[in-house]
Amino acid sequence: VKTVSQEGEDALIRRVCQALPQGGQVLVGPGDDCAVIETGKRTPLTLLKTDAVVEGVHFLPEAAASKVGWKAVARVLSDFAAMGGYGRELLVTLAVSADTPVRWIDGLYRGMQRCAEKFETSIVGGETTSVPIGNSKVISIAGRGEVARRQLVLRSGGRPGDGIFVTGKLGGSLAGRHLTFTPRVAEAAWLTEHFSPTAMMDLSDGLARDLPRLARASACGFEIDQSSVPRHRGCSVENALSDGEDFELLFTLGARSCEKIAEQWPSIFPPLTRVGSLASSGGCLEGGWGHFEEAGP
Amino acid sequence: VKTVSQEGEDALIRRVCQALPQGGQVLVGPGDDCAVIETGKRTPLTLLKTDAVVEGVHFLPEAAASKVGWKAVARVLSDFAAMGGYGRELLVTLAVSADTPVRWIDGLYRGMQRCAEKFETSIVGGETTSVPIGNSKVISIAGRGEVARRQLVLRSGGRPGDGIFVTGKLGGSLAGRHLTFTPRVAEAAWLTEHFSPTAMMDLSDGLARDLPRLARASACGFEIDQSSVPRHRGCSVENALSDGEDFELLFTLGARSCEKIAEQWPSIFPPLTRVGSLASSGGCLEGGWGHFEEAGP
What we know:
Two copies of one chain form a homodimer. By secondary structure, chain A is α+β, with helices and mostly antiparallel strands. In chain A, the strands form two sheets. Chain A has a six-stranded mixed β-sheet, with helices on one face. Chain A has a five-stranded antiparallel β-sheet with strand order 8-10-7-11-9, sandwiched between helices. At the A-B interface, helix 1, helix 2, strand 3, strand 4 and helix 4 of A face helix 1, helix 2, strand 3, strand 4 and helix 4 of B.
């Protein structure tokens, strides 16, 4: 019997989503950071996203509950930012066993609320359901975001010759940063206000895995200079490419904007680095994080 | 250490949600079947809902994957119906272990898609994440729905003297109906088009548990005639009150509408039964399904 790990996460999601018919209000269905819905001609576009963190995969059992809560919310806000938008409302699904300490749930909600509040998002509901004792905790966050039409950025708009940029530094997130990172909401807002990125996504599974996804969505190849990839202190190039959970922005810009952004990028933001260019074909990177192919976390 | 099972699901959710501040667009936050958001003055109201099914709790490991998929989607559509609205887009979160057969995932999506299509809802995305091998599968569905302003029904609008109604028959769902039920989307649409229910919810945890919730939200008590509760063949009164997973509509109507609806309720719909009245106080029912208080499924 063929299993999920044998088919691989990307292939599986692509295949099951292929068959899904989309209604007329759906501008972007499965395959980007968020789905994009047109709910009215005069209102911002609606973004929809869901994302889960699992004990033993995305956080260790001994992680502070409030940090787990922060991470769960920050991941979703990062996805809205990756479309040029921001989160508005969130729903929380907790699947935990009956022997979970109430104190843990309280800490989790404290962390979720802290992150939601910082980015002006409301937690509007959710549910708590039981899993058998001994099972990992699952925290799933679904959210609605909004984006102004002219600020919407998909993964699919990149063209050969566009510069490839990343915010911040990469690698080593699992030492702790993955629980406390700041989603690049302000940076994405500034970027889409002042420039027109041709493609964008957030880096969750490592540049080595995510850049090929962006390139494929844009029907492009890519060329990168691995030594230019910005690294956190103590990280090798391989760490920067493969560790994952960086939650930095990866985006592309038309050639004429590439110099201009280097001059204008605000100094209060984390550094901006050009790591390469989209090409008409080719590009190979090894590494990155696959849910069903490696042991976690 | 106090655990989730000791505090109880209702109390826990009430407490953690109390502290959540709500943004200006949020008309209804935690505590009803869905959250209600105002995204624009001229567009329908937005409904947000998330709901999970867990292997060993909401379905047995040997259940057909396509039925599990149908159930997961139908539960969410039932919640939109309970507000007077309908589902528009859904997001799917699968938390399954790497040894899950691909065939199972395919069956699940087939069932989800069949239900979504029947009720004109699009599955617009989602994600698949791994849980450790041996853990129960968790399928979480988040959705956006819409409701016309004048058709919105909350749990909180009931008044003493209002008649209490249920659609269909109750009890015995766990023998199989819980996997194949029809969400009362058509019935809710007709009802909110032709009448103005004062309060409504869907019956997921059994009348004995859900009616007190509706009454509490409306700051009312209730009186019911237990022998009038419509039962499926072979079910006792206790089954009808306590088994849960009926997914019928429970609603209240002002006294003047109670006779009228009995005359006008379409015969193609499942039967409509008045089971009692809201009162200014009092009302006691025993039984019903609590996630953290009983063994599943």
